[in-house]
Write a structure and sequence with these properties.
By secondary structure, this protein is mainly α. The chain has 19 helices and eleven strands. It has helices spanning about 1-35, 40-50, 55-65, 125-140, 150-155, 240-245, 250-255, 265-270, 280-290, 290-300, 310-325, 330-335, 345-355, 400, 435-440, 445-450, 470-490, 495-505, 510-515, and strands at about 85, 100, 170-175, 180, 210, 215-220, 220-225, 370-375, 385, 390-395, 410. Strands 5-6-7 form a three-stranded antiparallel beta sheet. Strands 1-2 form a two-stranded antiparallel sheet. It has a two-stranded antiparallel sheet with strand order 3-4.
């Protein structure tokens, strides 16, 4: 009998000690938060939650919005005055009371959980191929008139974009807002969509590219790639990104030029894309004729052979995947438990994954569902096509799927380095990110109050850039599509203070190392042409 009592007493003491340790862990979490050390707070509460403390589990969900702990029912957590741990009177030893301080109750919706962007999500990069790709990325040799490169619209110094709402491709010179028409083939129109950022396109789970997703993994056959030129099965393309890299060179406004200006543009107009006399083969022949490229491709592959267009696409994709990888942001370091977020960014994260409902679309490790949503962005610029009445328009995803349900829907952008990628929107209608977010919360009303703010290089011959905004039919169609979206994704109004916190969180998605660049701009190019700097 005495032995049984001793065993029971020992178990009771261990249980009390464990409960005391858990309570102290929760207390450490609150003490750390008071000192704005959110990393320590996160770890302390997580340890307690994983050991079964229901209060710590609920706090993990309520404060940090992470983990299965967020599913703990509210009644399990006291939400009034500070509470004291109670101990059954039958126990022989009683733990000292522990006061648990609670933050104010916040009436936020159940938050989604952030997902870390880990190294295993990126495909390995062949650095030797990426080195060739760097020169190709900066070399105007791949444009019909040899006056514009990939880097012109996706420059490292401009956050992997071009710093303007709607850029100027071939027939212009300079970078960003200073770019201007020049030369015998002077540009007479804008590129109809904003240059998308290139961050983290080296992930293996990439499914869609371009604002309208016209280059994508085949949903019915993930091993196949769908493109405007068919599946390209005859090519040995390494990635979806490599396939995408082959299409800007075919755009007359971006890189190819107009009919008659050069052989590439003429081939495109005549719909000669494939085959030995097609636009892609003509561009590959240009590269093959330069020893600075041919010799490096021969050395890379280990045998002499003519340079192919798929090899060019693979090289450019390898460079983009390496140069524009951004996974060391304050947010990513927070998820790895290496660094605390600032108080403002931490509250902004709670808004992003909770009340503001941003994470319903900006979800997963890329902060994008890679889906398409009609968010009522102002229709500015020349548009991608014309409707039956001759008005310019851009119907987005519906132009690919031919499904009216996809009208005016565009791909959800990824958000790493987002504060450095302006102007924002598929047409770059917003030069102020905060104004873009405000519009995003209620796009139907936002269309009525939109104030033109696009950054547009001077182009005298262009159609009026804001003409579509006075077209009630066109704006009405955009509004109707946005209204249907808002029926499913209605978002709350945020106060000025909440907007400040949300902006602080978006700033915490910046990766300084990626913005500084890895390989950088080459000093010279095999073609002898000058890279944009």
């Amino acid at each position: 009998m005495h032995k049984i009592l001793l065993i029971c007493a020992s178990v009771t003491c261990l249980s009390v000690a464990t409960e005391t340790a858990l309570a102290q862990s929760v207390e450490r979490g609150f003490s750390a938060m008071e000192q704005e050390d959110f990393a320590t707070a996160y770890r302390a509460l997580r340890v307690a939650a994983e050991q079964g403390d229901a209060r710590a589990g609920a706090l993990m969900g309520d404060i940090f919005g992470v983990g299965p702990y967020a599913r703990v029912q509210p009644q399990e957590v006291p939400r009034s005055v500070p509470q004291t741990r109670a101990t059954p009177a039958s126990r022989t030893r009683v733990a000292a009371p522990v006061v648990i301080r609670r933050p104010p109750v916040r009436p936020f919706a159940q938050p989604s959980s952030p997902v870390a962007l880990t190294a295993d999500l990126f495909a390995p990069v062949d650095l030797a191929l990426a080195d060739i790709g760097r020169d190709l990325f900066f070399d105007p040799i791949l444009s019909g008139n040899k006056d514009v490169s990939c880097a012109t619209c996706h420059h490292p110094s401009l956050g992997s974009g071009d710093g303007v709402s709607l850029g100027l491709g071939t027939g212009a010179a300079g970078l960003g807002p200073e770019r201007s028409v020049t030369g015998p083939h002077a540009a007479d129109e804008r590129i109809p969509r904003n240059a998308p950022a290139l961050w983290n396109l080296g992930v293996t789970e990439l499914r869609v590219l371009f604002h309208d997703g016209r280059v994508e993994r085949d949903p019915a056959n993930p091993g196949a790639i769908l493109t405007p030129q068919g599946p390209l099965d005859y090519m040995a393309l390494d990635t979806l990104l490599a396939a995408q890299a082959l299409f800007p060179v075919l755009s007359h406004a971006e890189m190819a030029g107009r009919e008659g200006e050069n052989e590439i543009a003429t081939a495109v107009v005549e719909e000669r894309i494939h085959g030995d006399d097609g636009a892609w083969a003509l561009l590959a022949a240009r590269i093959d004729a330069l020893e600075g490229y041919r010799g490096r491709f021969d050395a890379w592959r280990g045998q002499a052979a003519p340079v192919r267009i798929d090899e060019i696409g693979n090289a450019i994709a390898a460079f983009i995947a390496h140069e524009f990888r951004a996974d060391d942001t304050a947010f990513d370091r927070y998820l790895r438990e290496e660094q605390a977020l600032s108080p403002g960014a931490g509250e902004g994260m709670r808004l992003f994954f909770g009340k503001a409902r941003c994470a319903e679309c900006h979800s997963g490790p890329l902060l994008s569902d890679q889906a398409f949503h009609a968010m009522g962005e102002p229709p500015i610029g020349p548009g991608k096509d014309r409707d039956e009445d001759g008005y310019t328009r851009d119907i987005g995803r519906a132009g690919v799927t031919l499904d009216r349900a996809d009208a005016y829907a565009f791909r959800t952008p990824m958000l790493r380095n987002v504060v450095h990628n302006g102007p924002w929107g598929h047409a770059g209608a917003f030069s102020d990110l905060r104004a873009f977010l405000t519009h995003h919360m209620d796009p139907v009303a936002g269309l009525d109050r939109y104030s033109p703010q696009a950054v547009l290089p001077q182009l005298a011959s262009a159609e009026p850039d804001y003409a579509a905004l006075s077209n009630q039919m066109r704006v009405g169609a955009v509004k109707d599509a946005a209204a249907r979206t808002m029926e499913r994704y209605r978002m709350p109004a945020l106060s000025d203070g909440e907007m400040d916190m949300l902006m602080a969180f978006l700033d915490a998605l910046s990766d300084p190392a990626s913005l500084e660049g890895r390989m950088g701009v080459p000093e010279s190019l095999p073609s002898g042409l000058q890279p944009d700097r």
